[in-house]
Amino acid sequence: MKELTYKEMGLLEEEYEQILGILGRKPNYLELGMFSVMWSEHCGYKNSRPLLKNFPTEGPQVIQGPGENAGVVDIGDGQALVFKIESHNHPSAIEPYQGAATGIGGIVRDIFTMGARPIACLNSLRFGSLEDERVKELLAGVVSGIADYGNCLGIPTVGGEVYFNRAYQGNPLVNAMCVGLVNTQEIAYATASEIGRPLMLVGAKTGRDGIHGATFASEGLSSASAQKRPSVQVGDPFMEKLLIEACLELIKEDLVAGMQDLGAAGLTSSIAEAASKKERGVKVDVSRVPRREAGMTPYEVMLSESQERMLIIPRAGKEGRIAEIFDKWGLDATLIGEVTGDGLFKVYDGDVLVGEVPVAALTEGCPVYVREGLEPSYYEECRNSNLEELLEYDTGEAIKLLLASPNIASKHWVYSQYDHQVMINTVLVPGEADAAVLRIKGSQKGVALTTDCNARMVYLDPYQGGMMAVCEAARNLACVGARPLALTNCLNFGSPENPHIYWQMQEAIRGMAEAARKLGTPVVSGNVSLYNETAAGAIFPTPVVGMVGLIKNIEHRCGMALQDEGDLLVLLGPIREELGGSEYLQVCYGLETGRVPQVDLQAESRLIELLISLIDARLLKSCHDISEGGLAIALAESAIKGKKGFRIKWEWRGKRKDQILFSEAPGRVVVSLNEEDLASLSSLATQYEVEFHILGRVGSERMILEEEGIECVNLAIQDMTRIWGEAIECHMK
Amino acid sequence: MRFGVVVFPGSNCDRDCYHVIKEVMEEPVEYIWHKEKSLSGFDALILPGGFSYGDYLRTGAIARFSPIMPAVMDFAQAGGLVLGICNGFQILLEAGLLPGAMLRNSSLKFICQPVFLKIQRNDTPFSNKFKSMQVVKIPIAHGEGNYYCDPRTLQEMKDNGQILFTYCSADGEETMEYNPNGSLANIAGIMNGKGNVLGMMPHPERYSEDILGGRDGFNIFASMINWLKGVG
């Protein structure tokens, strides 16, 4: 195998100089490899760390914030949720099936490493235009990769999002989130405790797959990227399933002092992370590592990203019992090294010392770059574009076009391939509500889960868009009756070395941090994926928010489907007339521009409190957040789901219908309720200072909009259902 | 009365079945690890869904050689009730306890969604709590549920009344349009000749509690209990 130079490994000249300074000598090839993966953006966060400091990370509900394998929040009764979202974008771009599958494997390991049983997966996917043949292949490959891996593990995939936009042509985003449930006293941390404790490696044998995957994930995609296909790992979900069951048995019996999964940068990273926690050192003997193929060098063993491997640091005297449990599950556990007290990471090949670097140099020693952001010119241009001159589209036609847009159309083609019911906790399945809802067996409680990001809004205004992503996630949870608790994020951007991209990162993070602070939903975990760009340019800035919430009484949960004829339809929140960044502009005019609707965090927070109160008091029959497609599409979706029509009277004479009906201004939801409950709703809305508008009534089988006795929209729900239901399926035939 | 849920490496509906028997049906239940070699004191066995041994080679093909399987065969031959759900059904086919084989779904995709089933008979240990020809809703979740057998076997099963569940519309129409996976004769579940072994692709444990969206699956377990208590 041809040796790579430090530049080919992704290190900069000044970084190489730094390594020379740290070691006081030239690193050998193995040491250079270890530095390069640990100092990659993917492992070291060298461009994003200064920005991430701005996130709020604390709150009374937070048990563990960023810094561990995943974040942990308290849900009462001695239980906690463990969760994190992570990207697998680059691998999925060149090998969609394995790229997506191993993305699931990696995030699931992060969760059970903390001692939690994984109870749900979600994923947030972005692709180029669905008209494109390669995009269809990517979608099909990614979805079947997620399905085959997650389904085999027996973890339900309960929610997520799928968007299509040319900005992701050639650089799809595959972000996977996993949520686990743990008894608070059983949470496991990745600490290397006493000196002399052995390091056990368990799970799959180590092969040559995925070497330099972390480095590859930290550079742009090009036509040469396909040659990096060997950097993509291959997944074995059966092995992962055995690891989950075996590792959770170890935790139940309190046998481990530390546990760490092997992800990006393989053994190098997991051992360094475990040792860095308490300023310990480690020595490891690569000759003991079970191999999948002969002739592997220490460099290859230390950098391999072979999947489904775990590092275990047993409690004293528990090695025997641990071996028994692994044997029960047919897994091989091998002692490969031990914790030392000298702060050094020493790699042996048998008796020969083949590499020696300070642990801290690999972890905290990773250089940090504070860059200068520069506002790009498109920002002002888009803000100032005049949308008033656009001729108004026929409302009924626009609704049909929007329903057929793959961004709004039913995602049944996607989620029917995921087992979303295994573990029999899924109370609201995909498509039934704004968030997935799971029961917690043996209690009245439920948890709600969602992922959100409207990346077009973030592109047009990263600060407002960043706030919107957090607000939409929190609002979606409130729409099912859950109190938002905390969030995880996956920050997908282009190259931070480009000042315009760095500005997008700065602004989006500023917006997210502000919203998270105001809504009381701290950031407890996350992942950064940079260099998402091709020759054609960078992706839309896409800071995906994954959020979890708690429902006090699961019986009170609320879905989005209209229920009964005669019920009132009410808009909670203001009427707003602004089309900036809307799906309507994109679908009907091919425009992605405008001043995006501004977020009012105070109002958002009051709306969330109101929704929680209304649903807890069982006053709502349906509740659906207004997002892509605006008020008109929110109403249409509730109608389609409920197989019920409705009639609305137009009360806003002289105003443009499209501006009101298709505005994607945040802070608004559409609810339906029994007329008798209107007084209660009214008094609660007054109490929380949320304005509301009675729109009309549920009834018949048509969507009717009436202005001064004339029906300006009259569509059969059945036809709308067909258009909305078949759009993605038709593309994928 | 005691239920046993057999756990193979890769089973993933074992805990769900256990939960339903224990918490919903309120009957005693135990896990049986696949390395066990004998079974005693059980009145009914459940082979749960999942991906035993990763379903490598063929679904159910490796599990069929698990140490527990000879005891499961003996239990079945002695007339004990055996319910194989999804992967459990596939294992029963591989083990020869039920006739036929599974192919990949005709769509070549995994499908997770509720389907309608017609109960063809209500005089069996597994269906006595239903009405005959009743249409029920229970979810499926599989990639290989496309049942196949040779024409003679199909005819024999029809003659013996071994076909217990068929895919249908909400109104009970048994046409290809309502067949989610391409199964021969819309077959969703079959019994052995003696009627004490049932294999079914749909997951009754997923629709045994109202909060999960439906309760039609409950009656399959209730039928078994009813039968075992001798009032079936």
Offer a quick outline of the entry.
Chain A is an alpha+beta fold and 733 residues long.
CATH superfamily of the largest domain in chain A: PurM-like, N-terminal domain
**Helix proportion of chain A:** 25-40%
Overall pLDDT confidence of chain A: 94
Biggest interface reads: A-B, 33 and 33 residues
Report the biggest beta sheet of chain A as strand number plus sense, adding barrel if it closes: 7 strands, mixed
At the third CATH level, what is the topology name of the largest domain in chain A?
60s Ribosomal Protein L30, Chain: A
Order of strands, widest sheet of chain B: 2-1-3-4-11-10-9-6-7
* Number of alpha- plus pi-helical segments of chain B: 5
How are the strands ordered across the major sheet of chain A?
A: 8-10-7-11-9-12-13
> What proportion strand of chain B?
15-25%
General shape of chain B: globular
Tell how many strands the DSSP assignment of chain B holds.
11
Main beta sheet strand tally, sense and closure of chain B? 9 strands, mixed
Rg of chain A computed from alpha carbons, rounded to a whole number of angstroms: 26 Å
Number of domains of chain A: 3
**CATH architectural name of chain B:** 3-Layer(aba) Sandwich
Distance between the termini of chain A: 43 Å
N-to-C SSE string of chain B, H for helix and E for strand: EHEEHEHEEEEHEEEH
Structural class of chain B: alpha/beta
- The CATH superfamily label of chain B reads Class I glutamine amidotransferase (GATase) domain
- In the CATH scheme, the class of the largest domain in chain A would be Alpha Beta
Keywords:
heterodimer, A: 733 residues, Phosphoribosyl-aminoimidazole Synthetase, Chain A, domain 2, 60s Ribosomal Protein L30, Chain: A, 7-stranded mixed sheet, 25 helices, 28 strands, 24% strand, B: 232 residues, alpha/beta, Rossmann fold, 9-stranded mixed sheet, two-stranded antiparallel sheet, 5 helices
